[in-house]
Amino acid sequence: NIEYRKIAKFGQAECPSHLIYNQICTDKKTFTASLTTDVEAQFLLFDALRKLSITTSDIQDVTVNDSVLKNAMKFVRTEWLKSNQKSDLL
């Protein structure tokens, strides 16, 4: 059953309900919603971009030339799964 709830009663005023990725029903009155990190990050990015006069292309251009961000992206792509190793990222 689908039940209408006002966003204020839903308890997720910062997060529109259409972005909910997983729902775990505990009973008829309550449920726990969780977002994947990727979906939440995309929402935050698009929300910020709407408020600023920049595009994702602008962010990509700056990111490519930033040494710290380049190292962070390299780490995530190649070393993330080897989390037991101490990283020189920072």
Automatic annotation (TrEMBL):
It comes from the Eukaryota. This is Uncharacterized protein. It comes from Hymenolepis diminuta (Rat tapeworm). The lineage of its organism: Eukaryota, Metazoa, Spiralia, Lophotrochozoa, Platyhelminthes.
